[in-house]
Amino acid sequence: MVIIAVPSSGSGGLNEIVSARFGRCASFTFITVENNEIKEVKSMPNPASDVMGGAGIHAAQVIANNNADGLIVGFLGPNAAQSLSALNIKIYQAPDKQLTVKEAMDLYLKGNLQTISSANVGAHYGMGRGRGRGGGMGRRSNF
Amino acid sequence: MSEKPKIICVTGGKGGTGKTLVAVNIAIMFKNSGYKTLLIDGDSENPNTYLLMNGQLTRNSEVLFFKPKIIEEKCTKCGLCAQNCAPHALLHVDDSIPIPILTVCSGCRLCYKICPSDAIEPDFKVIGWTYTSKAYGVDLFIGELKPGEARSAAIIETLMENLEDIINNNPNKYDVIILDTAPGAHCDVELLIGNADIVIPVTEPTKFGKLDLLRIIDLIKLLEKDYRAIVNRSSLLGFKDQFMKELKDIGIHILGDIPLDKDIVNSYCQGIPIMDKTSQFDRMGEGYQAFLKIFENLKEWIHQKN
After folding, report:
1. B241-249 contacts: CB < 8 A, separation 24 or more?
2. pTM higher than 0.90, yes or no?
3. Whether B92 contacts chain A with CB within 8 A
4. Which residue among A64, A65, A79 sits closest to B104, beta carbon to beta carbon?
5. Smallest CA–CA distance from A86 into chain B, residue
6. For B225-279, how does the pLDDT look when each residue is reduced to its tens digit (9 = 90+)?
7. Is residue B237 less than 8 Å (CB to CB) from chain A?
8. How many angstroms separate the CA atoms of B79 and B87, rounded?
9. Contacts of residue B82 in chain A, CB cutoff 8 Å?
10. ipTM for the complex shown
11. Helix-strand-coil percent breakdown of chain A, rounded to 5?
């Protein structure tokens, strides 16, 4: 059994869109996978979305406290990557297009997602407008 | 001069306007006039003042920055440190020992102070160095930030703490102290301006120069300091009169201007300050005369303030 965390839009769930941002996404959806099948889906608002600084670190802590073994993510900053690596959480690269959580999970279950080991964007990439408020748009608008 | 040394900050907002050139030559002119002079280079990312004076650096000390050290045997895994760490530099997962993420640690020591089981001890990392030197009769004190480190203000704080010690322990050691700043209007520059008696922003006759001058003057006013600006390369493309008028029209106080001058370029490239008594530069040259006039205006200004 593994638990996969997916940063999601809205209040989370399989039908929501995967958020491109990690630290400042709206919600996390946690999917429990057993025998390569989705067993259970939980979601929660992301408490790190509006912290002043260190959102990536805080978000890594949140998904670790929810026992996540892996994370599917579009863009990952250096502090988040460092934290996830310290916590031994596997990172899967989401494709660069708009997907629902369900579609992303289907790719994961088919083994079509690549793991990444380091940051793929610079610090504060996902902050967009309104520094520290999490009110920005990031580069893409699929959340 | 009064008993306490006079502290003059040379700054300017824009990079490459000639802050260091002005700081070095003002220091040399004070030395020429018999004043005991200290020049502090507060541009910790480009500490190059000594190069304009052909100086050699001597490592003075390391600048240390706090980092938390977790004593695992004492840690109760309560997570209080992580909950209260504003930049989230402590990663805490339930029932495990917090992991410091040092790249975002601000060095505030809160974790060390609040840990209920004394499981966090202060540890330190080297983030830079200070150097001393002496060239052309002027003492130099220089701060350098280790490449890749972010907390440059800690280097400037170290320089200013040392300066305070010098003034408190030996008020007569120096008559004049010149502070040379980095470009910009950020906290490093603010710290230096805040420690000065008077401020000389150096600009150039371009739109960039004017914008950055206005920004640095805003900072100088915020710190309630008196300033007078120097326009360097004033003869650039013949805009001098127009530029000087623009500054005058918005009420900017001017200490003087320095025209484009071959001797200044030569002195800069050779690392021989143009105003040094032993230098071979033309005493009647435009650059030399401009510096003399600036020095007269500066002494007059200081005299008025006393």
Report:
1. B243/B205, B243/B210, B244/B205, B246/B210, B247/B210, B247/B213
2. no
3. yes
4. A79
5. B99
6. 999 999 999 998 778 899 999 999 999 999 999 999 999 999 999 999 999 999 8
7. no
8. 15
9. 61
10. 0.72
11. 20, 25, 50
